[in-house]
Design goal:
Blueprint (H helix, E strand, L loop, with lengths): L3 E5 L23 E5 L14 E6 L7 E6 L1
Parallel strand pairs: 1-2
Antiparallel strand pairs: 3-4
Length: 70
C-alpha cells in the first residue's frame, strides 16, 4: 500500500529547502508527501510534483476553488 506523509510549513519563519526541514528523503518510491504551505520552500528536489491549490472560490465561505497542476 501507499504511505501518506504530511508536512505543514505554516509556522516556518522563512523560505527553506527540503533538506532544511527534513523532507529530502521523503517520500519513499511508493509513498505520497503532502505539503501545506509549500510556497515557503525555495526548492523541490522531487522529480514528480503535483500542485493542488485550494482557495475561496466566491463571496460565500461555502465555495472553494481547486486547481491541480503538474
Amino acid at each position: 500500500g501507499l504511505l501518506l506523509h504530511h508536512a505543514d510549513l505554516y509556522r516556518l519563519a522563512s523560505e527553506l529547502g527540503a533538506e532544511d526541514v527534513g523532507l529530502f528523503d521523503l517520500p519513499g518510491p511508493r509513498d505520497i508527501l503532502a505539503i501545506e504551505w509549500a510556497a515557503r520552500m525555495r526548492s523541490f528536489p522531487w522529480k514528480r510534483v503535483i500542485r493542488v491549490e485550494i482557495t475561496h472560490g466566491g463571496a460565500s465561505d461555502d465555495h472553494r476553488r481547486i486547481e491541480i497542476t503538474r
